[in-house]
Design a protein that fits this description.
281 residues, alpha+beta, Alpha-Beta Plaits, 62% helix
Length: 281
């Protein structure tokens, strides 16, 4: 998923975005800031405090001396000064909070992007290996149903991409990823590992026959979904290698290599095949 470049505009509808509590927190954070902005704001608040402190006795003295105009002038000066400083603090708080929201949103999108393959929107290899390591560690800590590691490859993709162009190749990869994801459960993880190779982490498998049904579904669904996109090129099929694990004694890289080895066995048997190695511990 590409980064979303449309960050929120600064100070857009700040009252709706902040609310009273957000404004107060942002104001306190700005006043406590150790940078130039914080020092300037603290100095401004000090000046406002001194202005109010001086204005009070001045108004009282002018009133006692019957200088009513002077008293009103000093009072008006004090009120305007305080209001201007309060407005400056509030404005600075809005700016600070808007920038914080924008940076937080950008940080989330960057982190999400770092875990995804940009062409397909699936998990990337790094995220897949992290989740595989997590699942392996979980298997070692408690007794649970076996899990499975799948390695998939699009047979004929290279020829199709060379004949149809890079744009068509990217659309084929994206469509294949969507179909594979639709074939598995929501709890399973589908990733694009590299090139035209995909991986699946099947969380809990009740029976090896479940994998057989899943593999048959993918082997049938992917070529049918790619017929239109790959028109004018040799048919694209998918080969699958699967390894079932009842524990996580192997490292994630070793588990994936076992699945890759099963994939090579499937490819030697012909396009559109799958090979299952059960309980390879």
């Amino acid at each position: 998923m590409p980064l979303n470049a449309s960050l929120p505009a600064r100070n857009t509808a700040p009252r709706r975005a902040l609310g009273l509590w957000g404004t107060l927190k942002a104001s306190v954070a700005l006043i406590r800031d150790k940078g130039p902005a914080g020092r300037l704001l603290r100095l401004t608040v000090l000046v406002a405090t001194l202005t109010v402190g001086i204005s009070g006795p001045a108004i009282y003295g002018a009133h006692k001396l019957h200088y009513i105009g002077v008293a009103w002038g000093v009072a008006l000066f004090g009120v305007i000064t305080v209001l201007l400083i309060f407005a400056a603090v509030l404005r600075a708080a809005w700016v600070l909070n808007a920038e914080h929201v924008a940076l937080s949103r950008l940080r989330v999108e960057v982190q999400s992007h770092a875990l995804q393959d940009p062409q397909t929107g699936l998990a990337n290899r790094s995220h897949f290996m992290d989740q595989l390591a997590r699942r392996a560690a979980l298997a070692d800590r408690r007794t649970s149903a076996p899990f499975a590691v799948c390695s998939l490859e699009l047979d004929g993709f290279g020829d199709a991409a060379a004949r149809l162009g890079e744009g068509a190749g990217n659309r084929i990869l994206a469509r294949a990823g969507d179909v594979i994801r639709d074939c598995v459960r929501a709890s399973d993880l589908v990733a694009r590992l590299d090139g035209d190779r995909f991986g699946i982490l099947l969380e809990e498998i009740a029976d090896a026959r479940d994998i057989d049904v899943l593999a048959q579904r993918i082997v049938s669904a992917v070529p049918a979904a790619l017929e239109e996109l790959a028109a004018g090129a040799p048919p694209i099929t998918v080969s699958i290698g699967v390894v079932m694990k009842s524990s996580g004694q192997d490292r994630p890289g070793e588990m994936l290599r076992e699945a890759d080895a099963a994939l090579q066995v499937a490819k030697r048997r012909g396009p559109g095949r799958f090979e299952l190695t059960a309980f390879a511990d």
